[in-house]
Amino acid sequence: MKNLLALQKCALAHSRAAIRPTSPLFLEFLAPSAVQHTQLRNNSTLSADGQSSGSGSPKKYVLDKRQREFLDSALRVNQAGELAATLIYTAQTPQVVRSHPHLRPLMKHMYDQEAGHFTTFNQLIAKHQVRPTAMYPVWEAAATFLGWSTGALGREAAMACTEAVETEIGSHYNEQVREILSWEAEAKLRGEELDDELKEMLATFRRIRDEELEHLDHAVENDSKEAKPYDPLVDVIRFGCRTAIKISERV
Ligand SMILES: [Fe+2]
Ligand SMILES: [Fe+2]
Fold first, then answer.
1. Residue 46: beta bridge partners?
2. Which is more confident, 242 or 74?
3. Which position has the higher pLDDT, 3 or 148?
4. Which of 100, 161, 167, 197 is 20 to 30 A from residue 17's alpha carbon, by CA?
5. Fold annotation for 60-249
6. Is 140 annotated as contributing to ligand binding?
7. 192 DSSP β-pair partners
8. 124 or 241, higher pLDDT
9. Is residue 227 within 8 Å of 159, Cβ to Cβ?
10. Angle at 83 between CA 77 and CA 89, to 5 degrees
11. Ligand 1 centroid – CA 53 distance (Å)
12. What's the CA-to-centroid distance between 115 and ligand 1, angstroms?
């Protein structure tokens, strides 16, 4: 709980901080025109029209407005989702481990990974000056209620909650990975390459997606399918996740 409070404080501090676009990283994502000028001034392999003269590293792929908006939404949704994940486990864990103490290491492992994801997205939204979702307090309350209520229903329901959430979140991360891979393919066709920061973000999204799918496996191994009533519970949680994602993309 102490850790969670620290994480939330950190998120709020990031969202309030007036971070100036000083790093080249920021410029390359959110001010591509500025970066093009920088590259034209600083990279001797570029000719006046911005084309590579054939020596040195390939020209960087510059994101268009739609792509920047996609990343903006992705980071906002991911931060909100990881906040929710930490709160779900915080509310579930005491109830689950009280009757099933052997699950303590697993619950801690999953919580620790979610806390790491949340820290990662707090840092990314601060770095790229992405506005956190205005629904933050609503998701905080909803996630805590979801964690508490499924924990109260028992181990199987808590695991069914993880299964439902990770099914939606895993496929959401997958869509983001596929989108960035399509940019990479387009860059290759043009003889360009993705910015190093974007490559790193792609690797981060892939790593987190894999960890979410690992949680999904743990849930199934721990009898999520035995929850009663399984279908309505999982359907409602998955519907809630999809709705929260759609809202957080915009609001
Ligand atoms: Fe996560
Ligand atoms: Fe997760």
1. 52
2. 74
3. 148
4. 197
5. Heme Oxygenase; Chain A (1.20.910)
6. no
7. 59
8. 124
9. yes
10. 130
11. 43
12. 8
pLDDT of residue 22: 36
Cβ–Cβ < 8 Å for 163, 227: no
Amino acid at 176: Q
Give residue 51 CA to ligand 2 midpoint distance, Å: 43
Ligand nearest to the CA of 212: 2
Condensed to tens digits (0 to 9), the pLDDT of residues 112-142 reads: 999 999 999 999 999 999 989 888 889 899 9
Query: Would the annotation count 214 as a binding residue?
Result: no
Q: Identify the bridge partners of residue 193 per DSSP, sorted by sequence position.
A: 60
166 marked among binding-site residues: yes
Mean per-residue pLDDT, 199-219: 94
- 212 belongs to an annotated ligand binding site: yes
Classify residue 228 by its DSSP letter: T
Determine the distance separating the centroid of ligand 2 and the alpha carbon of 204, expressed in angstroms: 14
Candidates 185, 203, 201; CA nearest to 193 is: 185
Q: Which residues surround ligand 1, an ion (CB under 5 A)?
A: 82, 85, 114, 117
Cα 117 to ligand 1 centre (Å): 5
Greater confidence, 52 or 98?
98
pLDDT at 8: 52
Question: How far lies 146's CA from each of 27, 47, 207, in Å?
Answer: 39, 57, 26
Q: Which helix (H) or strand (E) holds 193?
A: strand 192-193
Q: What is the pLDDT of residues 134-168, one digit of tens each?
A: 888 898 999 999 999 999 999 999 999 999 999 99
Confirm whether residue 14 is marked as ligand binding.
Answer: no
DSSP 174-190: HHHHHHHHHHHHHHHHT
* 215 marked as part of a ligand binding site: yes
Gap from CA of 110 to ligand 2 centroid (Å): 7
Contact 206, 136 (CB under 8 A): no
Which ligand does the CA of 121 lie closest to?
1
